[in-house]
Amino acid sequence: MKFIDPHIHVTSRTTDDYEAMAKAGVAAIIEPAFWLGQPRTNVGSFQDYFSSLVGFEKFRAAQFGIRHYCTIGLNSKEANNEALAEQVMEIMPLFLAKENVVAVGEIGFDDMTALEEKYLRLQLEMAKEVDLPVLIHTPHRNKKQGTYRSMDIIEEHEIPPHLVVIDHNNEETCEEVLRRGYWAAFTIYPKTKMGNERMVEIVKKYGPERIIVDSSADWGVSDPLAVPKTGNLMLERGVPEEHVELTCYKNALAAYGQSGQFEESDWLNPEPIDQRTLFEGNSVLRGGQTPRVDKPEDDRIIQ
């Protein structure tokens, strides 16, 4: 079975993770722009980070057989630095127009401050202007209040729910998110947001429609194999295979495919891996390492 992880911060992960994900069946990933753990102090840091998401990271993933996409946005934590946020808003349209950018995100609330709400609203309007879906980050504290408030604001801006993925849901929020017509994403993150046994029960209770599983694996204690592990656990516990396929692959494809930048044909017929390839003069290998070079399949040969 193939999987999509539609929320993973692979910039913070190693090439070993890419190899393990490909082996487990992960065919495509989406990397949302996010907070790096240390606050950035100037717009150049954002500019280089966004450039890496649309450039080197896409190249690095392809060198291990995974198709990489991203979302671009001003995260909620750094929205509280108003002077910097204004400069980030100025450069965002340039990056939202890049190939492989599938949404504006992740945006939303952290501490639910006035500045977070200001830049959430501005970025919702920006998403309308560039005609892209939206990925909403919901807060870890005051989860229910932040999730409901986010949806209220989205509705004030008249963005249809089918264009919005509400992420980091739990048992407290998912029913209302689904009732209002949004995509409901769940982050399988060890010992905090959601475990995969709880995820199995949610799919059994609510069914697979508009539910999306992701890992949000990053620089913290997280698991880049959370999506395939959850899909396999669903199968073991009696969830129909078509429901697993919807929640771990097809729903993400449908939600982000609305961008026009996220198509299954991109990864079903990939170019052969050739790790001798360079990106701006650099390879993914270091001195002495043997490059992986896959040969194109010749369907005339029977071995």
Instruction: List the domain count as a whole number.
Output: 1
- Total helical elements: 11
Number of strands: 8
Principal-axes geometry comes out as: globular
Order of helices and strands: EHEHHEHEHEHEHEHEHHH
Give the overall average pLDDT: 95
* CATH fold-type name: TIM Barrel
The gyration radius over C-alpha positions equals 19 Å
* CATH fourth-tier homologous superfamily: Metal-dependent hydrolases
- Seen as an oligomer or otherwise, the chain set is single chain
| Biggest pleated sheet | 8 strands, parallel
Strand % is 5-15%
Q: Which structural class do you get from the secondary structure elements? A: alpha/beta
Which spans of ≥5 residues are poorly predicted at pLDDT below 50? none
Family: Belongs to the metallo-dependent hydrolases superfamily.
GO molecular function, one term: metal ion binding
Organism: Bremerella volcania
Region (Disordered): 281-303
